[in-house]
Structures
1.
Amino acid sequence: MLQKSATTDELPKIYAVQSAMISLLFGISSLSFGAIAELWDVRVTFILAATLLGLGTLFALIRRRDFIVTTE
């Protein structure tokens, strides 16, 4: 969908920002889970990670029609 709505000149900038945001969120989540593991128990960290993974899977299953790529 991104490729259809952005011009060819805008795509490198968009993908650069997307990559920077992914790296930033990965860093923040790594620090957050490290803090959770230090403050509470490691089991709490794994339970929270499993819960978030399950919620993400549930979201993907519910919204799977949005992920279908149609060729035109």
2.
Amino acid sequence: MPVSFTVRDVPDHIARAIEARAAEAGQSVQDYLLRLLIRAATAPSPAETTARAEHLAGGDADARNPARRRPLDR
């Protein structure tokens, strides 16, 4: 079942930017924001991205310390 969200205290300049981007995309603000929410909810989280990078690098990738990264197999 669909759920409704309410966002309060949106600064005027942000609301205007969202309205302009929705208009440029030929969408209503509702449709534009729904697409943004879908994209955000379905994109991998930073933790998922890090885990994937570690897996691809053989399990030893350390994004905070490049000197500890294993070289990629070629």
